[in-house]
User: Fold this.
Amino acid sequence: MSDSSFYKILNSINVNPLQVLDLEFEHGEYVHLDLSETNLKLTAVNVSASDSLGLYINTYLKQYHGKVGYGGYLEVRDLYKRSTYFNSEDKVTERNIHLGIDLWCDAGTSVLAVLKGTVHSFRNNTNYGDYGPTIILKHAVSNVEFYTLYGHLSLESISKLKVGQMVAQGQKIGDLGTSKINGDYPPHLHFQIIKDIQTYSGDYPGVCSPLDLEFYRVNCPDPNVLLKI
Assistant:
């Protein structure tokens, strides 16, 4: 299947926004948040510390009367420099391009399956700066299989799951974790679409290097095609 055909299928799934958080969708309450290396306001923020970054995000949301901060697809970010899991001495292979959309809000917020499907896999990814507890769902639309990834969840979110378990659209699948369990980030959901899961289980790259960008841009299209924020 061509890249454009896959995108057309995704785009045809819904006209209205699909919920991935158990929060009523109001455009004014979802505020775009820029965490890219080009945001000069971040030079005064210690983005390596969850408390410092969390204070910046909460202050920004309060300033714009937002409930949720969103954004980040294909954003080049400096905040991954703190972790050797992403960092490299070679700028070409350093992983700093974000492949999903982040939704920043309170820990404990319920996370919903964006579409019906089955549990493909789940895992607690414990590298510093990694997803923490993660769930991957498998979907089929118009006989095309693809996957959605939900990262930075609570440990309870994966405590009773079973591979192959059926999940209804809009069903609660977990809650957002705290910085102590989610890879040391302010609470947020990393939501990502994956066309080909390859051999991954309970994990999939959510950040890539410039060298691999073209592959991941195609394999992980903009999640906003479903969320329509």
In short: The chain has a mean pLDDT of 92. The helical segments are 3-12, 50-63, 213-219, 224-227. Residues 52 and 61 are 14 Å apart (CA to CA).
